[in-house]
Amino acid sequence: MFDSLSDRLGGVFDRLRGSGALREEDVQAAMREVRIALLEADVALPVVRRFVDSVTEAAIGQQVLRSVTPGQQVVKIVHDGLVEMLGSQTADIDLNAAPPVVIMMVGLQGSGKTTTTAKLGKLLRETRGKKVLMASLDVNRPAAQEQLKVLGEQAGVATLPIVPGQTPVEIATRALHAAKLQAVDVLLLDTAGRLHVDQALMDEMKAVSAVSAPRETLLVVDALTGQDAVNVAQNFAGEVDLTGVVLTRMDGDARGGAALSMRAVTGKPIKFAATGEKLDAIEAFHPERVAGRILGMGDIVSMVEKAAATIQAEDADRMAARMAKGQFDMNDLRTQLQQMQRMGGLGMLAGMIPGMKKAKAAMASSGVDDKVLLHMDAIIGSMTPKERERPELLNAKRKIRVAKGSGMQVQDVNKLLKMHMEMAKAMKQIRKMGGLKGLGALFGGGGIDAAMPGLGGGMGGGGQIPPGMGGGMGAGGLPGLPGSGMGGGGMPANLGNLLKRK
After folding, report:
1. Which of residues 368 and 226 earns the better pLDDT score?
2. Is omega for the bond preceding 161 within 30 degrees of 0, making it cis?
3. In 3D, which of 113, 135, 142, 252 has the Cα closest to residue 188?
4. What is the pLDDT of residues 221-262, one digit of tens each?
5. Would you give the DSSP letter of residue 455?
6. Domain ranges of the chain
7. How far apart are CA 227 and CA 254, in angstroms?
8. What is the CATH number of domain 313-497?
9. What is the pLDDT of residues 103-145, one digit of tens each?
């Protein structure tokens, strides 16, 4: 969502960082470009003015201009300003009340309210251990109640039985009674939407709110609607006592202005962001992490959390034991590829890793997408169990058979084997260093670059994370997918040439 804004700001700050000393005129010129970038990203004009004025005032201080690294200081000030604009701190959902805690979902029709209700129910059940009941109060849209019932079955969350002919207030009263009888922790009320804000909608929501006394009233807004989303939020905030906002379609290609403006304009925190169609594609909104992504600093914390949620514990234990012995076969490579797919694919990971913006752009321009992972998985799947354990058995005849079985070319099989060979070599080097304990010691003592010359690529600037073990970030490839060089800020040569065909 923030790609275009991130690219514009990245260009501005690259020029600032390239200057040995900054003058006040340099900062003023940079802030003019920041103002234009934010306006082009569809951020509300009053928000842009406040942001640029506060950042400029802090950036032209003597402490910054006389600093050893003035460019970096300005970037930090802009980062802090973005965090402040987005809401400073993560706003958690308030469940501190006697059960059942009522959460009312409101918003316009088509904003993703019903799907978001099911996502939130699944999240509360799985991460908070809450017993959740969902009820649809939408009696206007055809099959709206049936939709929530189906989504509830998919998410493993109970839904209120449908009784035709009831009004929203009657459904809410019945839902509250059922939640108390069933000892439900959280009751989610999915209210009706409209194509636009009207008085009938507001009156209906006020009546439902009066009988259910919700602890949280969350406004669901489609981030793709831009500034109109901010106008909708203002209209709802004036009529209903909102406690927070949920932004849907945060994985879309909109300019991101709604997300940046929402907190400042409404005064209500953004509590959740929906990042896809699947029912697990929702996460808490972290202002600091989003600001880091916008400025190209990556989001390692979110990546680690995503890895912890998707990587199976038994797979991780088995991989750790094999790494300690210096072992790495095709089955291990296949496990890594599947884990990358579960974490969102190459594009998602590249957006979270510091310094990978150029690699991500190169991937897009060269026509490589997440089908690469599927193609590699297909090649490994065409091998026999013995060939996966001992890839050295793959002679010319076997490679032809594997290529035909996977619908790929022999060259593609050779590239995958070379990738595996480099990763296996890395595992053996880790074992020589003392296994996982030796590797752990590197994180505080020079990183992999110092201990394994030629393997790590280095990232510069203090190295926010160790370079990727299988080839490094800067000179060797994506983590877990080693290549033979980034090629001047591009993507690994092996990965770039591997399986471009759709």
Report:
1. 226
2. no
3. 135
4. 887 776 677 777 777 877 788 888 888 887 665 566 677 777
5. T
6. 3-86, 101-297, 313-497
7. 11
8. 1.10.260.30
9. 999 888 888 889 999 999 999 998 888 999 999 998 888 888 9
pTM of the model: 0.60
Q: Which long-range contacts (CB under 8 A, 24 or more apart) does 310-316 make?
A: 310/339, 310/342, 310/343, 311/339, 311/342, 315/339
Q: In sequence order, what E strands does 147-269 have?
A: 158-159, 186-190, 216-222, 244-248
Provide CATH code, domain 101-297. 3.40.50.300
Side chain identity at residue 280, one-letter code? D
In sequence order, what DSSP letters do the residues of 366-422 get, joined into one string?
TT--THHHHHHHHHHHTS-HHHHH-GGG--HHHHHHHHHHHT--HHHHHHHHHHHHH
Across the beta sheet with 270-274, the strand order is 158-159, 132-136, 186-190, 101-106, 216-222, 244-248, 270-274, 282-284
In angstroms, the CA 100 to CA 129 distance is 14
β pairing state of 132-136 and 216-222: unpaired
Kindly tell me the number of DSSP H helices and DSSP E strands found in the chain.
24, 10
- Spatial contact of 369 and 360, defined as CB atoms under 8 Å apart: no
Please give the backbone phi and psi of residue 324, each rounded to the nearest 5 degrees, phi first. -60, -30
